[in-house]
Design brief:
Length: 186
């Protein structure tokens, strides 16, 4: 590929991006005209929006407290960076929506094993108990598979594969295909 080909690709990308942004710029200009007719102070509105994004708890305050109507301002020159300010509020609700998801995940994890983790040595104790229960089931049912173990222990199979690999490396369990059996010395 030559330098000219690279430039053509860049030109095409710029043209496509301009076509993408044009409707947004038109919408921005229309909203700006409407705001001027209604006497909305854009700088204060942008500052309030930035404050709401900075502190999500403050989002309820402006909605409940009526703001005094500002005096109409004289028309100012239209700066070019303002469309970027219009794009920011679209991205910010996504970020605000992502925060509850991040908070929801630990709640689900805490509900599964919270009681075990609160005990001293909780996860180690639970792991040792699971390991012993697995060994007991393998001893009672030679040839049992990991999916069968997961049903018997009422847990997911992927978490058991790690334990099986550890038992294999310790020389306690042997795996023939999918079947598990205790090693003669174990």
């Amino acid at each position: 590929m030559t330098v000219l080909d690279d430039l053509r690709v860049v030109e095409e990308r710029i043209a496509a991006r301009l076509a993408e942004l044009e409707p947004l710029v038109q919408e921005y200009n229309e909203l700006q005209q409407i705001a001027e007719r209604l006497g909305i102070d854009r700088e204060r509105a942008l500052a309030e929006a930035a404050a709401i994004v900075a502190t999500p708890q403050a989002a309820a305050v402006p909605a409940t407290a009526p703001a005094p109507a500002p005096a109409p301002k004289a028309a100012a020159a239209k700066p070019k960076p303002k469309p970027a300010a219009k794009a920011k509020p679209k991205a910010k609700p996504k970020a605000a929506a992502a925060k509850p998801k991040a908070k929801a995940a630990p709640k689900r994890r805490a509900a599964k094993g919270a009681a075990v983790r609160r005990q001293p040595g909780g996860t180690q104790k639970a792991g040792a108990e699971r390991r012993e229960r697995m060994l007991q089931l393998i001893r009672e049912t030679p040839g049992i598979t990991v999916p069968d173990l997961s049903v018997a222990l009422e847990t997911d199979a992927p978490s058991l594969y790690r334990v099986v690999r550890k038992l294999q490396s310790d020389g306690i369990v042997a795996k023939d295909g999918k079947s598990l059996r205790l090693v003669a010395g174990g």
